[in-house]
């Protein structure tokens, strides 16, 4: 299990080194960001595109080491709300990309909660 004391002092983009859990969360956030950016452009849906930009912004801030616990906690509802919004907005017109993104987001919400609890315990 990775802990804050096992990490080296600096990682990607000048922030503290990432644990394995943090790396998995970043990859899943990246997948969700890409699917939102793609869907936002292809479907001409600015709110979907902006959600993708939000994911990217959060990733960059996290990698820079900016208020990681706060970002983790904020990412839980930001990610979770995407699921019912997709269900309502698509109203039966679901795509494989959408299903992939929702599976990623369900796993992501669980892992974000675990990460937030670990960060709180390590603080």
From TrEMBL:
Keywords: Membrane, Transmembrane, Transmembrane helix. It comes from the Archaea. The chain crosses the membrane at residues 21-39, 45-63, 70-87, 99-117. This is Uncharacterized protein. It comes from Salinirubellus salinus.
């Amino acid at each position: 299990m990775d802990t804050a004391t096992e990490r080296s002092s600096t990682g990607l983009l000048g922030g503290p080194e990432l644990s394995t859990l943090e790396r998995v969360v970043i990859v899943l956030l990246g997948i969700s960001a890409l699917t939102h950016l793609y869907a936002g452009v292809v479907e001409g849906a600015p709110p979907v595109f902006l959600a993708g930009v939000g994911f990217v912004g959060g990733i960059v801030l996290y990698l820079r080491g900016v208020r990681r616990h706060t970002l983790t906690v904020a990412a839980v509802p930001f990610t979770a709300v995407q699921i019912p919004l997709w269900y309502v907005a698509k109203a039966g017109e679901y795509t494989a990309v959408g299903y992939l993104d929702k599976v990623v987001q369900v796993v992501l919400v669980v892992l974000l909660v675990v990460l937030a609890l670990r960060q709180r315990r390590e603080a």
